[in-house]
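FORM 7B: Structural annotation worksheet

SECTION A. Query
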Amino acid sequence: MQTVRDIAKQIVAREGGFVDDPDDPGGATKYGVTIHTMRRLGLDLNADGQVTSEDVRLLSLSRAVEIFVTHYFDRPRLALLPEGLQAPVFDMYVNAGAQAVKLLQHLLRDMGFAVVVDGAIGPQTAQASHKAAERSPTALADAYGIARRNYYFRLADRRPASRKYARTRAGRKGGWIRRAEEFISARYHLNEREFQQRVAQWD
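SECTION B. Predicted structure
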């Protein structure tokens, strides 16, 4: 069975090294840890009195893993979720913060569970997610992954500058979409025709 640390290491591998894309609201980022997160945590790694992109460059892989485990898994209490949901919600939490939990809560409400959409995992959300998983753990994880993929598509619909994260320059699936589909059963992956139909409005 995968440990939380194993999942965090996989997230770091997906996120990659240092980038500072002006179209990315996260700003300077390394291993998925943004400069905003480092400022919030006070990670002045070069001890010059301020947290800048240079500190982001200095971030080690092992420290990134620790940040993810502590601040993106333990503190949001993702361990309260069914095991099959922990990895996809953890992965999205790194990418989108509390929106990852809100997405799950909206999904649970659509399934008939009376949960509050507040982005926080408490007894209500935990209990509902376990009850939903009892019906079919794989189906719940697939539904979450599909909802996540749709969330990224909607972001790109609204913000043209973000479309490069959902569609490559060559017109294929971008990183956001591929990442969401890593947690969806293969039969629910969009084929090339379906993907092109979904993004046709962007042209």
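SECTION C. Observations
Residues 5 and 69 are 7 Å apart (CA to CA). The beta strands are 29-30, 33-34.

SECTION D. Sign-off
Analyst initials: ____
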